[in-house]
Amino acid sequence: MSDVSIDLQSWVCPAPLRDAPNIVMGHGGGGAMSAELIEHLFLPAYGTAADAGLGDAAVIGLGGVRLAFSTDTFVVRPLVFPGGTIGDLAVNGTVNDLAMVGAQPLALSTAFILEEGTALQDIAHVASALGTAALAAGVRLVTGDTKVVDAGHGDGVFINTAGIGVIDDRADIRPQRAVPGDVVIVSGDIGVHGVAVLSCREGLEFATTIASDTAPLHGLVSAMLDTGADLHVLRDPTRGGVAATLNEIATAAGVGVALDERHFPIPGEVRDACGLLGLDPLQVANEGKLLAFVRPADADRVLAAMRAHPLGAHAAVIGHCVPDHPGMVVARTALGGTRVVDLPIGEQLPRIC
Amino acid sequence: MSDVSIDLQSWVCPAPLRDAPNIVMGHGGGGAMSAELIEHLFLPAYGTAADAGLGDAAVIGLGGVRLAFSTDTFVVRPLVFPGGTIGDLAVNGTVNDLAMVGAQPLALSTAFILEEGTALQDIAHVASALGTAALAAGVRLVTGDTKVVDAGHGDGVFINTAGIGVIDDRADIRPQRAVPGDVVIVSGDIGVHGVAVLSCREGLEFATTIASDTAPLHGLVSAMLDTGADLHVLRDPTRGGVAATLNEIATAAGVGVALDERHFPIPGEVRDACGLLGLDPLQVANEGKLLAFVRPADADRVLAAMRAHPLGAHAAVIGHCVPDHPGMVVARTALGGTRVVDLPIGEQLPRIC
């Protein structure tokens, strides 16, 4: 091992990793434990080979264009859920990572880990959904890989997609650009994907008409850019939900975020299911929604453009950036009080994407 | 599902998939069963969303440059083996996919699937090896993802890497360019990686000094291009070994390949281990070797340039392309006979990469 990497002889699990010597489900939740794993294990291990903050999409200058490059692995269970499958999730998840830096997706790779004994019919089903989602998103499937692992060492199908896209000339979108005064907009109903997947989990089935919101968001982003607005930040609130995403942005930009819970678009069925299960809807995953930070002067026309787009019909202003409490997200509750919206620590809903 | 994808109502597992309704380990072996899975399941499922043949690396024109884009998932067991770990394999595997179309690697994504209960120390070990390998290969780790699956649904660590690179202006390298007369060169000793991994498999341990040949090959390819030779085909013979790779090239180009077994650089220990285990060294995986198809007029200087490079010191001519038996690979044996070198059907060595 080179001197830029972890010294394995002296490496001990650092305290911030919650004193756990082993991986627990919470490390995959997209919250504080996931962040600690990256900060205290992966980044020191990668040393100077790591570039930037290992964000959702990297930006690479190349021959006069800005290329976006991103990867995401999907381990959702079950493979098929109301409104979607692991296949379309694998397309839309990576397309959205690209869209959140202002890129139009160009090409995807697809890499499958198949478990011995999985029915070919089931694989055909999710691969077909993947192909259909790629056509719908206008992205080409250009390269792939397939591995097989022994029964008991996988879970049917895991899919990784990586994607490349070309960033719109008009876009300079990154978490660090959030500034006090920015208006925070969400593109529609939140908590829908997580509740849809949970509703069909073995041992947990409950009746709901909620279907996953999985969708590709680059068309919506284009419509927002077409307004001429200077979009400061875009992020899709997936694992860890709106709570995790807003906390990450607040920390990255060193600003506070003040929300008003009365303005959150949360469907009644999501609210009911979260109440029943003891979940915070702000921590529940979405797969077809985005959060936008824009200047107050741009907010009205961005909101109007979003509402005119099928994927932004329920867009709403949910809060704004403030100079106070940098790195913190607070919300005025429906009862008029104020609460801190924490970064989730571990795993509220395991294997949701 | 759209009409371009598999009609799931009428889809039945096609006969070429060996009449198996379920995934078997052989589908991941890189041989005939892997090819059937792609041809009869993935490509029909993807429909018109699939571009080109889902080869190891896609070539994408972008702003005046030719971009190479590739993905590979690593499920090797054990995670640490003589000469390497899953971490450096994950770097070199994808770097080599890029190098085989003549690209210099630019950036990699890394995506981990971690199994609940895995020791953080073990993850730090392979992540550190990954970082060190990336530095050695001169490639940046620019974006990543981490997922956690429940104990019993993973196997410690799986890693996917996707990579992008810029293709050398001098290169037009693809399997279809093989023509009768081409000289076939291998860059060094074959069968080394597979035997190294097998030697430490639980229940199969045997004493050997063989260490994996895992290495990044883009520097060697540069040295070959520097000769001014027109390289027709390059491929790294990983899963399925030299046998699978040569069969794929023969099929893609519609040429025959005639080998001479007496010229194969096979270390004695590899030969002995293969004899003991009943393996064909031509079907054993390599992770730091390449096969090159070049014009006869270019062969001497390409071979000289390879031998002058540390990763090509044992380079040797092993055969040539012929107009006879298109799509078939035959070898003159050490005893003077001739045998057909088949595309392996299934899995000789499961989870070798």
TrEMBL record, chains A, B:
PANTHER family in alphabetical order: CARBAMOYL DEHYDRATASE HYPE (PTHR30303:SF0), HYDROGENASE ISOENZYMES FORMATION PROTEIN HYPE (PTHR30303)
MF-aspect GO terms: aspartic-type endopeptidase activity
Record InterPro entries: HypE (IPR011854), Peptidase_A2_cat (IPR001995), PurM-like_C_dom (IPR010918), PurM-like_C_sf (IPR036676), PurM-like_N (IPR016188), PurM-like_N_sf (IPR036921)
GO BP annotations listed: protein maturation; proteolysis
Lineage: Bacteria, Bacillati, Actinomycetota, Actinomycetes, Mycobacteriales
CDD domains named among the record's database cross-references: HypE (cd02197)
Ranges where the Peptidase A2 domain occurs: 221-256
Domain of life: Bacteria
Family designation: Belongs to the HypE family.
Organism for this UniProt entry: Mycolicibacterium fluoranthenivorans
Protein name: Hydrogenase expression/formation protein HypE
